[in-house]
Amino acid sequence: MDFLDEMLNKSPKEKFIEILQNGNLGALEKTFESFFEEYIAMIELLEKQGLNERHLREFILENAELMSERKNDIFIELTAKILGHEG
After folding, report:
1. Which of 56, 68, 81, 82 lies 20 to 30 angstroms, CA to CA, from 12?
2. Is the distance from CB of 85 to CB of 31 less than 8 angstroms?
3. What Cα–Cα distance (Å) separates residue 31 from each residue in 13, 24, 60, 69?
């Protein structure tokens, strides 16, 4: 099995973790710095709208399937961004 076949047989999370373990440190730093800025901005905007951690936890519990799908989307997006910075 070649590298491409091996990558295609892994979940988005497994691929992401593999990229984390083997990725270029500069690419990882740029990607996560941007990701954390977006996360902080979203939390600040939610708080300005009167939403807090309790609201967030309730939403997560009530939308488990959506959370699973969106986590996969994020794993794919971050993997692509990391690989894009390496190229």
Report:
1. 56
2. yes
3. 16, 11, 24, 21
The DSSP call for residue 1 is -
Q: Is the distance from CB of 25 to CB of 85 less than 8 angstroms?
A: no
pTM: 0.80
pLDDT band at 56 (very low <50, low <70, confident <90, very high): very high
* Region for residue 50 given its phi and psi (left: phi exceeds 0; alpha: psi -120 to 50; beta: otherwise): left
SS (H, E, C) 10-69: CCHHHHHHHHHHHCCHHHHHHHHHHHHHHHHHHHHHHHHCCCCHHHHHHHHHHCHHHHHH
What amino acid occupies position 62?
E
Within 13 A of 41's CA, how many CA atoms are on the CB side? 6
